[in-house]
Design brief:
The structure is a single chain. Helix content is 27%, strand content 44%. With 199 residues, the chain is of the alpha+beta class. Strand 9 and strand 10 (176-184) form a beta hairpin.
């Protein structure tokens, strides 16, 4: 019969093992992987809510602005960005309606009427939904990587959006989005690191 000390060590070991990454499967990185494959993988995720840290580098400011909060997605078309620091702000997109709530009040915008706003939103929403047709209609798509670690760069096709937006690059691991890098034509840049799920 095992001693209490031995059983305690076994329980501790099992607990630690649940936090370790799965052993690498060499076949995953070797298998062909492309944009349709990525869209199929992402489309399997019904919902997700993660912490984020966003660093905005603006030409008009000498120091970057760092935002913290949560980013949530619920199929088929709802995205929520809740900023908790250094100020409170909620951005919710449901269908074609964007609702922005801040200390200044609440404002609603029809996304389809604003090509630049739509470019920002659909880069994340259509990607997470696995809607390749939407991405192809709005962006030139460049993909690189493997199922384990991938990068999707989107460049706007609409002239009005391309006037302000250079590219949006999404990075991820498997079915999880880990970063969004937005570069504007004027030199401004926003990098959102998605830190992990909200417990």
């Amino acid at each position: 019969m095992s001693s209490p000390s031995t059983l305690a060590h076994l329980v501790l070991l099992c607990s630690l093992l649940t936090w370790l990454p799965a052993a690498a499967d060499p076949g995953i990185d070797a298998a062909p992987f492309d944009v349709p494959g990525l869209m199929e993988l992402l489309a399997q995720v019904a919902s997700r809510k993660d912490h984020f840290t966003e660093t905005k580098t603006l030409a008009m400011l000498t120091q970057p602005v760092v935002l913290k909060g949560t980013l949530a997605y619920v199929r088929p078309d709802r995205v929520e960005k809740h900023v908790t620091s250094p100020y409170a702000e909620d951005l919710v997109v449901q269908g074609d309606r964007l609702t922005l709530t801040s200390a200044k009040g609440t404002k609603q915008i029809a996304v389809e009427n604003h090509p630049l706003i739509r470019s920002f939103i659909e880069a994340i929403r259509a990607s997470l939904a696995g809607e390749l047709a939407v991405l192809r209609r709005l962006y030139h798509i460049k993909f690189q990587g493997t199922r384990r670690q991938w990068e999707l760069t989107l460049r706007p096709l609409e002239a009005q959006a391309a006037e302000y937006l250079t590219s949006i690059t999404l990075r991820g691991e498997g079915d999880r989005l880990t970063a969004v890098d937005i570069r504007e034509t004027g030199g401004d840049r926003s990098v959102m690191e998605i830190d992990g799920p909200v417990s």
